[in-house]
Amino acid sequence: MIGIEIVEGEDKTKERGKDKYHEYGKTGSLLLRLCTPLFMTGKVVILDSSFCVLLAVIALKKMGVFSSALIKKRKYLPRYVKGEEIKSHFEDAPVGDTQRLPGEIYWVKFDFKSRTIL
Question: Which of 39, 100, 106, 110 could cross-link 63 (Cys pair, CB 3.0–4.6 Å)?
Fold first, then answer.
């Protein structure tokens, strides 16, 4: 474990104001704040699917921190991932088949390694 934040009520959050990563949303800014000690180390953080905020993951990469997450596409999570396209692409693939799915957002290239669900 590299960091911990105690959850405060809504009132305390408003008192404190916006943090410097507020543009990444609540979850993305939390991820970036917790990984600050790892910036420019080249280390890899393993994320729970809840923390798979694409823009924050790309920001981490720019700060020299890599990440990996096992994710399951849900209605709104993760944003910018074409879950239905991926699901239909793997429909006839054998179990365990793996492919890389490159993409680009805000002129930053990213690469997903996708796998069929067992």
Answer: 39
Q: What is the pLDDT of residues 57-99, one digit of tens each?
A: 889 988 999 888 776 666 665 666 666 777 787 788 888 777 7
pLDDT given at position 36 = 93
Name the pTM for this structure. 0.68
Q: Assess whether pLDDT exceeds 80 at residue 16.
A: no
Q: Any idea where the domains of the chain sit in the sequence?
A: 10-115
Helix (H, G, I), strand (E, B) or coil at 113: strand
Residue 47 contacts residue 69 (beta carbons within 8 Å): yes
Residue (of 22, 111, 17, 3) closest to 67 by Cα position: 111
If you write DSSP's letter for every residue of 35-102 in order, what string do you get?
Answer: HGGGTTS--EEEE-GGG--HHHHHHHHHTT-EEEE-----SSSSTT--HHHHHHHTTTSPTT-EEEEE
C-alpha to C-alpha distance for 63 and 47, rounded to whole angstroms: 16
